[in-house]
């Protein structure tokens, strides 16, 4: 087993999920509450990776972030170098690719809370920020659970985007899904099997755990 | 002086609201009107939950909102009880009640946690989850939660409307206790005649987005030109002092405008009582009959009369101490008795209910 590859995969999924929770939560709140007419335009951009082939996404990211791309120019000027074929580039790609899986469940959860609990909190003297953390977030915890699990699992399973902008550098960008592909290409069925079976088990156990915790939350809320 | 002044103009989906009223804010002020007359909108504007441009709200000299200034709801010293209890489902009853309480600074805390909890009878519920409570219990918790923010003004939006009759009866005594034991002014929305009669000191009458009248609740109940006196349950609230309790007959005698009036059952002595007399329970006579089963006969003066339909007539009466009451009789009887303004007659009261 290539533990370096496993570790890198877990690290990538964790960093991606955490980043998505930090930027996705305010985004989901805005999508749930705003009355702006262009809200659904933003919503559609967030949802794009659901329907776009990962290679298309990866291709455009490569163009944008590469040395000739506008963002690549920016990162180079800032002294950060270019992002493709680095771990940071992989994180950027994963964040975009997994965004709908995190934002959508949280947005749905925020929407289903309705306005009332926040109004109640305000009449009880809580500022909007206090109400958000003490009322909206706990009430939307099922959405956060689903979003985190799906975001993590989806990042572990991504392949196309990684291949396009990450390549296959051991310890830097070589994650499990790419490693499996490599082993199959090299006809190393045994190794491919071990990794594939491991991922399958991981995915299954994750989903079972998620549904069980979700049911407990649901029981407690009713 | 405690005073609330509300000016509000806004276009809503189905109608436009144009409200301008001032009222003394002590005691219980009832915002009364049919559903859809804009009562809730007014209450939400006072709380700051609704932000509109054309709105001016002042309370006790403080500006809560005008053209340039808007105090957000969490900075207004209000308590708000919604129609549905709206407890936080993720918090225990105790945590729900503490949510507002812990956000009040020490010097502003005027109501003690234990006092409010026992006033509303929610101690045994403190460790439960909101999901385990009945509708009535939930609403009591919501009231305790609002009270413990030590509000300068308590707003209630039909807190009983979503409850069944049994739960209503369960909560009512607590509301009346609030009225008598706390000095927090209460603005209460209702379209229920009985709630109006039992709770209100003052009534702000609303219809179709406008305030149609403001004034003393007891007088309003009997004003013939206002809708309250036209209902089937039209009623008058009369106050009287307890004289004595007759143990043998189990009747409490009270003094109403110089006449002895009997109430069945023991109600305590030495206090002033409020009783409710339905218009349909009052008949009229030109002389004081002694040969009748009716116990309570009061000398009254006719103040006015109003036809309710082709056969029924509502008569407004004044007692010797200027309290007013209603009698619903047939048009034919009214003509036979030649009831006109200023005529001295006798009201025979069949039933009196203690409030």
UniProtKB/TrEMBL annotation, chain A:
The keyword Transmembrane helix applies. Residues 6-213 form the ABC transmembrane type-1 domain. CDD domains: TM_PBP2. One of its GO terms (molecular function) is molybdate ion transmembrane transporter activity. Keywords: Cell inner membrane, Cell membrane, Membrane, Molybdenum, Transmembrane, Transmembrane helix, Transport. The chain crosses the membrane at residues 12-32, 41-63, 83-103, 149-169, 189-213. Its main location: membrane. The keyword Transcription regulation does not apply. It is found in: Cell inner membrane; Cell membrane. Pfam families: BPD_transp_1. GO terms for cellular component: plasma membrane. It is a multi-pass membrane protein. Part of the binding-protein-dependent transport system for molybdenum; probably responsible for the translocation of the substrate across the membrane. Belongs to the binding-protein-dependent transport system permease family. CysTW subfamily. This is Molybdenum transport system permease.
Automatic annotation (TrEMBL), chain B:
GO terms for cellular component: membrane. PROSITE patterns: ABC_TRANSPORTER_1, ABC_TRANSPORTER_2, MOP. Keywords: ATP-binding, Cell inner membrane, Cell membrane, Membrane, Molybdenum, Nucleotide-binding, Translocase, Transport. NCBIfam families: modC_ABC (TIGR02142). InterPro entries: AAA+_ATPase, ABC_transporter-like_ATP-bd, ABC_transporter-like_CS, Mo/tungstate-bd_C_term_dom, ModC_ABC_ATP-bd, Molybdenum_import_ModC, Mop_domain, P-loop_NTPase. Residues 291-355 form the Mop domain. Residues 1-233 form the ABC transporter domain. The keyword Nucleotide-binding applies. It comes from Solemya velum gill symbiont. Signal peptide: none annotated. One of its GO terms (molecular function) is ATP binding. This is ABC-type molybdenum transporter ModCBA, subunit C. Pfam families: ABC_tran, TOBE. PANTHER family: ABC TRANSPORTER I FAMILY MEMBER 10 (PTHR43514), MOLYBDENUM IMPORT ATP-BINDING PROTEIN MODC 2 (PTHR43514:SF10).
